[in-house]
Design goal:
This protein is an alpha+beta fold and about 180 residues long. About 20% of the residues lie in helices and about 25% in strands. The protein has one domain (about 30-35, about 45-175). Helix 2 (about 70-80) packs antiparallel against helix 4.
Length: about 180
């Protein structure tokens, strides 16, 4: 009877029913995905991704519900899809050209995420390019274990425009004027 009461109390607290280890505080990177335990049996877990969009020239951190897995490709695809109607209503925009395709993505052991994009990224002006690349860098480096981004367009390496000039590998610190307050 005492054991049954303990199990009932644990279930009421929302503890997961499996014995999978989960980190309490990731390695200092921003939490990009929030998998909330279901509150009732059979209910799907809520998942939120953090993307960076633009408002009045500044990057803005935006949480968005997602049914996609927390993999880098899924998160970057969500960013490339642009803002939703609700986000537009909140005056958010994207400097990333519409229809930009994710051609490939590779996570290196050194913490560098290589993002291969379609040719649309090469059509933007210098100011917009700085902001567009910054959106991708801030979103990608929020993922656990990702410290920097290397870019390719159609498989060819390209230097990312940053506030410090064009760089082979870009980090958040290369965009101090774009950093959200």
């Amino acid at each position: 009877m005492l054991i049954a009461a303990g199990l009932l109390a644990a279930a009421a607290c929302g503890l997961p029913e499996d014995d999978t280890a989960r980190p309490l505080d990731p390695d200092g990177s921003e939490i990009l995905v929030d998998d909330t335990a279901p509150t009732t049996p059979g209910q799907q877990a809520a998942r939120t991704v953090v993307l960076y969009f633009v408002r009045k020239g500044d990057l803005v951190r935006q949480e968005r519900p997602s049914d996609r897995p927390a993999e880098p490709a899924a998160v970057i695809r969500s960013l490339l899809e642009g803002v939703t109607a609700d986000e537009k209503g909140a005056d958010l925009t994207s400097a990333i050209p519409p229809e930009t395709e994710l051609r490939g993505i590779e996570r290196g052991q050194d913490g560098v995420l290589t993002v291969d994009l379609g040719p649309q990224m090469s059509t933007i002006t210098s100011t917009s390019a700085l902001t567009a690349y910054g959106q991708i860098v801030f979103t990608a480096t929020g993922l656990k274990g990702v410290t920097a981004v290397r870019f390719r367009i159609d498989g060819e390496p390209v230097a990312a425009p940053t506030e410090e000039g064009n760089l082979e590998v870009a980090r958040r610190t290369n965009y101090p004027e774009l950093a959200p307050a």
